[in-house]
Amino acid sequence: MRRFLAGIAPLLLLTSLAHAAPPAAPELDNKAYLLVDFDSGRVLAEKNSHEQLPPASLTKMMTSYIVEQALTTGRVKETDPVYVSEHAWCRGTSAESCMYLPVHGQASVIDMLRGIIIQSGNDASKAVAEHLGGSEPAFAELMNQQAARLGMKDTHFVNATGLPDPAHKTSAYDMAILARAIVRDSAHYYPIYAEKEFTYNGIKQGNRNALLYTDPSVDGLKTGHTEEAGFCLVSSSKRQGMRLIAVVMGAKSMQGRADQSRALFSWGFANFENVKPYAAGTVLGSPKVWFGKAEQVKVGLLQDVTLTLARGEASRLKASMQIQPEVKAPLKKGQSVGTLTLSLDGAPVATQAIVALEPVEEASFFVRLWHRITMFFSSLI
Fold it and tell me: How many Å apart are CA 6 and CA 145, to the nearest integer?
């Protein structure tokens, strides 16, 4: 499992632009909330977003994420059977959510994943924790390793379900990081988060995310509730190519967490837009190359530049480039040769490395010697 997790790239941390002044964000009656753009990672609104709070069943987002990555990397298969131990078995009390797996029975990994996401099954969560980690405490350590890798600095997990424990904490900020990771890394399995119901063992249960039934732009992610945590919801909405993620923690009712999430989405989409001034692979210049077989090299960006700006700000965006004064071969494709800086009203809002878009091999000895002589005399002028 350590090798399986090590290959997953960490997500960029969320960002904030202090200069922007859109209309005031909604005032919400909860313990904490956060609204973030998926593509850019820009925080659009927040309250107590780094406060460590009990996450309740929002915890299962990390449980499902690890299962999804195990499936994606081939460590497990969808049809693999998962055993239901006495510890994992859910007795069906009103105090917890259950998939209603039979004790000492088995269910496939893909059924377990649906049971975790849609039915919020504590039994499914504990069963896959034992299947992947050997025990639930050992799986919790894997959860913490993954949280650290993603940059979730406010988080500590002690179980796979979110059942109350004084040491089991996270924040709205960290839940947004995790939601972005799920959307980004679990594309094949992400549609499960939008499924409204799942039937297992003859029992049909509905997804508790009320937004799925009222807003067609919403396609996930997860609800949570305990007496201590209050009512929590992490949700994602995509409209006209722009995806926002909202985290509400500690609302006072199911209706409250849904209404507050709707208010955040309405405010965010009304006041912000995504701008992509540069696409990956766009040639930004062709500087001279010293000591190379080619005299010039095409340079540009490895990734799209995506900014989330208040509506109307894009027209004031300015770009500046700094290329190394002496670009020298050999050059590898993707090697940094400078920096692109984007500014809004004179304040930097984004920087990205300018890289070689093609490799340049080193020239012959005599060409390199001539270049050195040329550089020497040029420095005397």
Answer: 9
> Residue 219's closest CA among 254, 195, 198?
195
- How far apart CA 358 and CA 239 sit, in angstroms, is 36
309 and 317 Cβ atoms separated by less than 8 Å: yes
Which pLDDT value is given to residue 371?
Answer: 81
Whichever domain contains 350, its CATH number is 2.60.410.10
Peptide bond into 221 cis (omega under 30): yes
Both 183 and 223 in one domain: the answer is: yes
Same structural domain for residues 266 and 287? Answer: no
Question: Backbone phi, then psi, for 196, in 5-degree steps?
Answer: -85, -20
- Domain span at residue 237 reads 2-272
Give per-residue pLDDT as tens, 260-305: 999 999 999 999 999 999 999 999 999 999 999 999 999 999 999 9
* Catalytic residue list: 57, 60, 120
SS3 332: coil
